[in-house]
């Protein structure tokens, strides 16, 4: 099983409180410390299965909530899901259709399947982050926000610098629910600058 399902206090709390995964507490922590989601935001969550971030997003915003994943996501009231590859232009067009135009926030808590080889896994995680950023650049509205999980390593500064090219305010944050010893870190980017991009 992946570490996400290891039975620690956050796993137990998630099961008790009805969240599909312990990762819900990471987003709650991010929102509490560095508010990103507003009450009327349209939000797209990438790599959304099993849906714990979607559950949290539904409580934070009354706007349209869309989840995208290669795997099916069990239905959630008030949430629209797309089964597909978020790098696919057709999937991105479907997102814009469902959102009624550019979206307010893109979140991504996705991780590649880990091989156990640290440098290889970190490189794959950075590549996934770059793809999530490219998606955000294509669908975000001016002033939109972006949250993306990544992993510290030699390639991380390049991803961080690329995010800074597109957003006015960028910082990193490690939620309290992150596992001890994990190299994961979240990039929190605010105020997307559309005029400097070739996006829609």
Give a verbal description of the structure.
This protein has a single domain, classed as Rossmann fold. About 35% of the residues lie in helices and about 25% in strands. The protein has 6 helices and 7 strands. It has a 7-stranded mixed beta sheet with strand order 3-2-1-4-5-7-6, with helices on both faces. It holds the Pfam family FtsJ. Belongs to the class I-like SAM-binding methyltransferase superfamily. RNA methyltransferase RlmE family.
Instruction: Briefly note the structural class of the backbone.
Output: alpha/beta
Q: Over all CA atoms, what is the radius of gyration?
A: 16 Å
The count of helical stretches stands at 6
- Summed up, the domain count is 1
Could you name the CATH class?
Alpha Beta
Find the CATH superfamily: Vaccinia Virus protein VP39
* Major sheet size, sense and barrel closure: 7 strands, mixed
Overall, the morphology is globular
* Straight-line N-to-C gap: 40 Å
Number of DSSP strands? Answer: 7
How are the secondary structure elements laid out?
Layout: H1 9-17, H2 24-33, E1 43-46, H3 52-60, E2 65-69, E3 80-83, H4 89-99, E4 103-108, H5 118-139, E5 140-151, H6 156-166, E6 167-173, E7 184-192
Parallel strand pairs: 1-2, 1-4, 2-3, 4-5
Antiparallel strand pairs: 5-7, 6-7
Helix pairs in contact: 5-6
InterPro entries: RNA_methyltr_RlmE, RNA_MeTrfase_FtsJ_dom, rRNA-MeTfrase_E, SAM-dependent_MTases_sf
EC number: 2.1.1.166
Protein name: Ribosomal RNA large subunit methyltransferase E
Characteristic key phrases:
alpha/beta, 36% helix, rRNA processing, disordered N terminus, 200 residues, EC 2.1.1.166, seven-stranded mixed sheet, S-adenosyl-L-methionine, single chain, RNA_methyltr_RlmE, 6 helices, 7 strands, Rossmann fold, disordered C terminus
């Amino acid at each position: 099983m992946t570490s996400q399902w290891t039975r620690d206090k956050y796993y137990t709390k998630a099961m008790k409180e009805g969240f599909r995964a312990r990762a819900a507490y990471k987003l709650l922590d991010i929102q509490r410390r560095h508010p990103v989601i507003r009450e009327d935001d349209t939000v797209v969550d990438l790599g959304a299965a099993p849906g714990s971030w979607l559950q949290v997003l539904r409580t934070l915003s009354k706007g349209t909530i869309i989840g995208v994943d290669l795997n099916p996501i069990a239905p959630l009231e008030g949430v629209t899901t797309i089964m597909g590859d978020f790098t696919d232009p057709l999937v991105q067009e479907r997102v814009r259709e469902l959102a009624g135009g550019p979206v307010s926030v893109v979140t991504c808590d996705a991780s590649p399947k880990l091989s156990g080889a640290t440098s290889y896994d970190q490189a794959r995680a950075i590549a996934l982050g770059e793809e999530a950023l490219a998606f955000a650049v294509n669908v975000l509205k001016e002033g939109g926000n972006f949250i993306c999980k990544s992993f510290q390593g030699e390639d991380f500064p390049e991803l961080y610098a690329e995010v800074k090219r597109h957003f006015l305010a960028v910082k990193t944050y490690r939620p309290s629910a992150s596992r001890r010893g994990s190299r994961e870190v979240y990039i929190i980017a605010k105020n997307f600058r559309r005029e400097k991009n070739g996006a829609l």
